[in-house]
Amino acid sequence: MIFLMASISSCSVTLRITIPRPVSFIQLQMAFLFQKFQEAVKTLAKHPAFAKDPRQLQFEADINRLFLYSSYNRLGGNANEADAEEIIEMASRASVADQQMQIQENLHSQIKTFCSIMDEILLPNEKMVNEHQQESTVPRRSGLSFAVGRSDPAHNSPTGPETRPLSQTEVSQKLKDQLGYTLNVKPSQISHKDAGQGVFLDGTVDVGAVVAFYPGVVYSPAYYRYIPGYPKVDAQNPYLITRYDGNVINAQPWGFGGDNRELWNGRKIGEIKADMKGAEPERGSDRLWKLLSKPLEGNQGDNREVIERRNPLALAHFANHPPKGVLPNVMICPYDFPLTENDMRVYIPNVLFGNAEVNMRKFGSFWFKTGGSRNSGSRVPTLKTLVLIATRAVQDEELLLNYRLSNTKRRPEWYTPVDEEEDRRRWS
């Protein structure tokens, strides 16, 4: 389970011993070159020019890493040594903005394939699939265009093609048969006493593969005060995560998904009851703060979308932090889903809280409205989501994610930093 705003609850995992697959020369070459990049990042971090904004440095390092992984994955089995060297060269020369846009294109290519397979599994026949795809009247923009922003979101009609009456378990098995992998939630292999559920890859993926979606309700900074439990939103909810741009996703309402395709707005469906036995008792000052700063009430937009709750990959919120001595095998990646893709929308397990994104600017620890829509003028509206991508080849094992908890707050005893410097830069 994940929480990346200030604190997180239970996790860790024991390393499962598997026989490694043969490693190709190109994989070794990429590993060697990527190691050189990591060393360069550590050197760059000490440069005085970055001392004022280490958080931006870590953001750029993550983007560079994601660019390498996702670009390598897109080359697939056709990759050769020259291709690997070209990827590294592009990563060293391309701007952060260009790399971000290419990452979006790489992810979108994978997710579109996933959505097509889900259509084959759930839509009864080819005729119905064609009718479903024709619902989109806006042509798809590929490449860099869809990564630039968002305007007023397009809403799906609550009516759509009928789907086969398959359970979530049946859909998951069929996805594995066609895609080569699926996900299962079961007790973590973590030996720590606070370990809970974990999410396991059932199958095989290569580096850079999209392995999971982070589901739930997306709150832009303008709507932070509507997050349940505000201002101490983590007190009873370990299923929150924050993107670098400030958007927060609450996966608690999603729970384990469901067995239907339905209109969903993230209210009281599938809510997970977190185990908060170790929580500190509430002090008088805490109660007073709650009274002064309790979450706002009201129906802000009530965005409802037709969502496929049987999505077998919508389980990223169960990923655990690795124990001491074990490296993560996945990392968080922002994915800005283009809402013009009506035929894919049902498989993106997120809804936006509020009527539209409000343009906000951060000053210190506070966000302020600056007027207008955040993406006014943008031609492609997007939904700000997150996915997990593999940082190496993964086969039949638990997914492990570096939580990067803030070092300014008390960390749980199970938390061992993967890289203390990265944690410090991320929350500086």
Major sheet characteristics: 4 strands, mixed
SSE pattern: HHHHHHEEEEEEEHEEEEEEEH
How far apart are the first and last residues' alpha carbons, in Å?
A: 24 Å
Counting helices, strands and paired strands, the structural category is: alpha+beta
- How many helices? 8
| Main β-sheet, spatial strand arrangement | 5-6-4-10
Low-confidence stretches: 5-21, 136-158, 276-282, 288-293, 362-377
Overall pLDDT confidence: 77
Spatial shape: globular
Properties at a glance:
428 residues; alpha+beta; 3-stranded antiparallel beta sheet; 18% strand
Give a description of the structure.
This protein is of the alpha+beta class and 428 residues long. 28% of the residues lie in helices and 18% in strands. The chain has 8 helices and 14 strands. A 4-stranded mixed sheet has the order 5-6-4-10, with no helix packed on it. A 3-stranded antiparallel sheet has the order 1-2-14. A hairpin with a 5-residue loop joins strand 5 and strand 6 (248-250). The model is unreliable at 5-21, 136-158, 276-282, 288-293 and 362-377 (pLDDT under 50).
